[in-house]
UniProtKB/TrEMBL annotation, chain A:
The chain crosses the membrane at residues 100-121, 360-380, 416-442, 454-477, 497-522, 745-764, 800-816, 831-851. It comes from the Bacteria. Residues 100-317 form the MacB-like periplasmic core domain. Coiled coil: none annotated. Pfam families: FtsX, MacB_PCD. One of its GO terms (molecular function) is transmembrane transporter activity. This is ABC transporter permease. It comes from Dyadobacter chenwenxiniae. It is found in: Cell membrane. InterPro entries: ABC3_permease_C, MacB_PCD, Macrolide_Exporter_MacB, Permease_put_prefix. GO terms for cellular component: plasma membrane. PANTHER family: ABC-TYPE MACROLIDE FAMILY EXPORT SYSTEM PERMEASE COMPONENT 2, MEMBRANE COMPONENT OF TRANSPORTER-RELATED. Residues 366-478, 748-861 form the ABC3 transporter permease C-terminal domain.
Automatic annotation (TrEMBL), chain B:
Coiled coil: none annotated. It comes from the Bacteria. Residues 16-89 form the Transcription regulator PadR N-terminal domain. This is PadR family transcriptional regulator.
Amino acid sequence: MNTPQPPRWAKTLLRWLHPENTIEEVEGDLDELYVYAYERSGKRQALLRYLLNVVSVLPPFVRRRPSAAKYNQPFSLSPDMLKNYFKIAWRNIVRQKAYSVLNIAGLSIGMACSILILLWVQNELSFDRFHARADQLFRLTCSAGDFKTAVSAAGMARGLQAQLPQIKGGVRISKPSPMLFEAGEKKVEEKRVFYADSNFLEVFSFPLLAGNAATALKDPGAIFITEEIAEKYYGTSDAIGKTIRINNNENFVIAGILANTPSNSHLQFDAIIPMKTMARWSQDIQNETWGNFNFYTYLELDAKTAASASAQQQLTQQIAKIFKDRGQAVKIDFQLQPLTDIHLHSNLQIDLPGHGNIQYVNVFFVVALFILIVACINFMNLATARSERRAKEVGLRKVVGANRHQLVFQFLGESLIFSFLSLVIAIGIVCLLLPVFTMLTEKTLAIHLLDGKLLLSLIGIAVLTGLLSGSYPALFLSGFAPVKVLKGKLRVAGGNLLFRNALVVTQFVVAIVLLVGTAVVYKQLDFIKKRNLGFDKSNLLYLPMSGELGEKKQALKASLAQNPLMENFTVISDLPTKLESGTIDVIWDGQTTRNQVVFPSLDVDENFVKVFKSQVLAGRGFDSAFSGDSSSYIVNEKAMQIMGMNVSNAVGQNLTFGERKGTIIGVVKDFHFKSLQYAMEPLILRLNKWGGVMVIRTTAGNNEQTIKALEKINQQLNPAFPFTFGFLDKDLDNLYRSEQQMGSIFNLFAGLAIFISCLGLYGLSAFMAEQRTKEIGVRKVLGATVAGVVGLLSRDFLKLILIAIVIAAPIAWYAMNKWLEGFAYQTTLEWWVIALAGMLATAIALFTISFQSIKAALMNPVKSLRSE
Amino acid sequence: MRRTYLGEFEELVLLIISILGREAYGVTVSREIEQQTGRVVAFGSVHNTLIRLEEKGFVKSELGGATTERGGRRKRLFQVTALGKTALADIQQLRSRLWKLMPDDTLKLSDI
């Protein structure tokens, strides 16, 4: 039967405009209705009805049937889907072993680095925060012009507290003094012994394990020792009531056992002795003087003042006023240094040793971040480079009905698996490296995995790394249009290549900046080591004149003189590593206004010039032939300039130093008597009549014999005290300990950053070589040389590294200049350092690439071309 | 009581689908509406209503087998779901309850 058909044009219109997923049923229904109407009311009626119906099912009238794809689609994060993501991810990891190893190695090394650095940073930042009222504790510091110091006068703590209601408490602590401890058979010199006021334990929260905190420090003759010291001398931490003999002349009763000083305390002590004991002989304490700056004063402020900067400023002005009213003519400014700032923000003289530096903390924090970023970039790069391989999978998944969310989750899941695997390995690496790292940083760092906060931050790092490194592949790969991917080869888009190149450049910028940093730190340290200090520092051995040595100076000199090993010796009040005395109380001929410059002083004997090999520019050194030298002075060049004199007229001028009038008998060339971080200061040399440190210039190569001979002399003259000695050049090197540490940490991490970057480069070059296998085959068949092919493959990377050098140079230049500014004497930052770092990075990168490119170039073209 | 959102035309179409049983698809529904009510409706309104009812869950649909009479095109056959049946029952109950509540003389036409 020939069924009537509606006009073709109407059908075409319907097919063209009606929604695709309902066209079949609608067209069929309309045809049926047409036939029905045709049979009932004729062709015209039927056509009219048909057209009306067609219009009613065209947009905008038609309702769209929801897309079939939406049916039965599981929630993207349903357990089954999650299981699937992880399963597929795991299969991918296992299947592409080389790729996975590169990725996991890079990520885990990067993570291990940042965990190590973050442990260090966290330790540095935690200093002195364990005190219960840490935010209310301040240290009173003062400055006279450029001379800033951590010490203040003995009378200030109590005097200020009496007059200023904002100050709730004050505690004085002496400078640390080494003391000879003796209990039973043990007899050792302890270096970290302090005198402290009786409220020491009220102000600070050092835990007391045994003893009475409230009363013990009030009793002269009592002593607090740490657990460690108790164990050392008595073999038990229960040592209360036992006696300890100090400096061979006085017995102390142990009144309290303190827990070992936390490593993150700027105050590091082995024993605390009541200030009352010191008051027996110290004029400063007895008179509560305001003139001699010999103590560290810690003040506890009320909460209101502690919280407000302006209230503190007002307080310091009040302090300065009280100080002036006390009849002190010297102009001194006072500052309140928050307890928590002492470790990282202190650049004061005469401070307790072992300070950190906020600059290093910041630098290393940034370095940690960058290393992690470099590792993430690696991951992204490799994943993007291999995206062509995964494109088919993406296409297929999409055809089967996956939507974009699911693909994003899948790829993120994959990178999360990578990052958590890496985290586990990284924790292993950290545990392995921690002993080395603690040696390098000289800190007691530990990784407590059960600590919730740490665990949380580690997981945070892993999640962040996973999301960051997975973000680009996830967003990029999931965007593939399935038809394009499955139809044929997907052309890697230009944008993708650009992005990848940018990532490689970033990696190398970081690596080159770190390399330059290492080079500059090394150069600066070398500069410091090689700098002419103004005296000959080699072969200088010193012997502190402790115990009976001080009294038997003549006998000591006599026995030294008899020994042929000692070339020469001199007695000096302080070593030129840390000179702590100084005064403003200086008057000279022709002085118009009162002096405001701090003049450090050093007491030396007649042999000083000869032993230190310093240079006398005018006049002479001290000489035993001149009996009047006890009131003579020698000044250095800087002091001479400050006093407005010159080499030709300085000798013979009058100079009053402290209370003592005298004349200048000589001028010595400037020599460094403090760390090179401080600029040259004026110096006044006086004749030493009391003692201090015996400095001996030994003949080269005879150190061991000299030490033995010294030990023998010490045993004869000073039997009660153990023999201690030191080398001056070693002590000088120790002044730059933190810089050296920074150098070696920098070294380590720069190396690792380069290593991680190269891992990525290795993977990338392998991929590139693989991708161009056929091209290389054709080129070789046509006569390309191996060198030509290697060049071809390396050229692209070389370009990127050159760009990285161009970007890194100014960054490194700026950063290193900033660091060098911290030194009064600094090496010059020369262009070749950056050039060298760049060349090194290039060389390492080329070496890395060469593996793959040479392999590709040497491959037999028959193999690569046969497959087509 | 659960509220049912069912428009007047939707209710009509739903009733007709249940009347037609296994034979309910676009053509039969349109024809039945025309025959039962005398209303001539555009196919588009029937089509849209069927889709809307399905979205609301009152009917379910599946494509039938191909037949030659439609040029090999498949029909989409509709069936009332349990939810649809409850909806119809609810409406009927509501109506009868309202009818019962109405005073006897309200509907006397002579009063108007």
